[in-house]
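Notebook entry, structure prediction.
Reason for the run: the old model in the group folder had no record of what sequence produced it. Starting over properly, with the input documented here first.
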Amino acid sequence: MVAFDRKMVERCTTLFPELRNRQTGIAFPTETLKFGPESTRIVRCILSQMNASDELERLCAMLRLLPVVFTAADRTLASRPMRSERDVRRMQRIWTYVMAHYGHAIPLDAIAAEAGMNRTAFCAFFKRCKGMTFAQLLTRYRLDTVCELLKHTQKQVSEIRYAVGFNDRPHFVRVFTHAEGISPSKYRQRYR
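New structure, fully documented this time:
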């Protein structure tokens, strides 16, 4: 994952009106690449050029941006990488379990057992690897799934909500609106 400094994202909202509504919901993760002054200058230049561009030109500019992101000599990892192959395998088991069970409650003890750890060790491991708690990641995964289903299916919002594990309607609407900036039904209207 690559993320930009909060100040840079705020400056981008002046260049890209479509970001204005989303900025309040943008998470600034700790697992990011940090760029030095030279790469930062190049990224800013490309983003500035995108300001007066049409969609095709923006896409071309984004394609020019990708090599900078992936090959910059002055980039550093802004958080700790996973320590071992064992950690990678453990995280893969966690993701497999989440994808299979996200529609139901996933108790911390159950996911910790799946990872072969006790609850305390799991929480510390997960926070170190992902920069967020397991509950935060699970909620984000569920919300991403809701967004996709709202865009690409005809299912009722209540049906989608239950399918992804949100059983309490007011809680779901509050969490969704906070994360996406609009209600689920307005989100669906926007993407139809």
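Summary: Residues 22-31 have pLDDT under 50 and may be disordered.
The old model has been moved to the deprecated folder.
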